[in-house]
Specification:
alpha/beta, eight-stranded mixed β-sheet, single chain, 10 helices, 8 strands, Rossmann fold
Length: 328
Amino acid sequence: MHKMIVSLALAVVLFPLAVITRSQTASVYPMQEGFVDANGVLIYYATVGKGNPLLILHGGPGASHDYFLPYLMPLARTHRLVFIDERGSGRSEKLEDPKGYTVDAMVEDAEAVRSALGLGTIDLLGHSCGGLLAEAYAVKYQQHVSHLILCSTFHSTKKMNAVFEAMKAKMSSDLRGRIERMEGAGLYGHGLDYEKSRYTDEYMKAAWGEGYFPYLYQKNPDPNYAPTSNGIMSWDLYREMWGSHGEFVIDGNLVSFEYADKLPMIHVPTLITVGDNDECAPSLAREMNSLIAGSKLVILPRSGHMTFVDQPGLYMKAVNDFLATTGR
């Protein structure tokens, strides 16, 4: 009986010690957040992870970094992830004059964040419209970039608009008719006062829920995706950069983004990823691949625009393998 009591006592003592020992071996990734006063605009940032800094630029334009979460978090095991919300987006300061929302200004904001946080040489990832910023940053500040990752993006607004025309032509006549009817009537100024500065719910559902959806997801559609939730964004920024005439034509200030003659200036290791049924068509990615010497192209199967949602394993392997290569 005495021996049994001793054994039980030892078990009680040793079990907590074992738990403590195991917990001490677990990795902890604290998150830091704040604002950088970049060119007179407060830019929100959040950092997490260990390793070389990886600056991540979101799309939209006018979205925020939130849609990357939690999908890109595995990269925190090998990189210090630096997410930002671009000017006018998410938690960052909004401008009174939308004309300040430009690719050039956002590139300077990214550079200010890099400098203020003391990041030194960075790896740079841009997704969708964030890829445009990444291209422009890499051209101007190439000396600060070790690896460049361009995800589901484009290099020519003219060619992107041609992709949209083809996308629209493939729609059912019913869907195309509904979309064109709403576009013809003007997309703003409808409904109650609080609705007048954004698309109507009907247009969001038709354009984003029916027209875009097959090009957003393929293998693994997000069950929480809701077209009208996409409408929670910076609309003044969106109209300034994308334009006011619908989802299937870019006629805002992004119309001037033509980088075919500038991409050959990029000489840092570059990875280009795209879904095989991406909104930003693989043909655009192939052309970018041909323009950036030595770049690597990965086309993810059964994937739309949200490649890291459709194919998380393949996407992470492509990015991790690429970042493990020697940079500049």
